[in-house]
Amino acid sequence: MNPTNAKPYAKIVANGIQAVEVVKELQSTGYGFDDIYVLAHQQDVTAKIAETAGAQEIGLKEEGMFDSLANLFRSRGDELRSKITSFGFTDAEAEFYEQELDQDKVLIIANHKS
Questions:
Q1: Which residues does the UniProt record annotate as the domain General stress protein 17M-like (predicted)?
Q2: What is the pLDDT of residues 8-47, one digit of tens each?
């Protein structure tokens, strides 16, 4: 979760190759492994991109215990929106990003830890 009021960086890209490129660019500007997250509509795609790019998946630490457990019972769209809002994005922003993920795009979130 974002401990400050500043919103994290977020970018939608068309595919995993572009996601890896964006992650590498963020790393070259000072973001570390613990600062960069990737999210795709399919969980296996998210895992593959995260591993290839040297980024993280959004998990328990970012979402919190309640939301993480609740995601076990949510639709994939609801789960994605929950993961996105856990970084401080509004419901409307999460809806927009989730619709982009529905089109097989990839979301990269970078958030400097304080």
A1: 11-103
A2: 999 999 999 999 999 999 999 999 999 999 999 998 999 9
Task: Pick the closest to residue 81 from 64, 69, 68, 93 (CA basis).
Answer: 93
Six-digit token string for 6: 């500043």
CA–CA dist 104, 59 (Å, integer):
20
Q: Which residue, among 108, 114, 113, 81, has the nearest Cα to 13 in the 3D structure?
A: 108
Query: What's the CA gap between 20 and 85, in Å, rounded?
Result: 23
Distance set, CA 72 to CA 57, 66, 68, 98, 107 (Å): 16, 10, 7, 18, 21
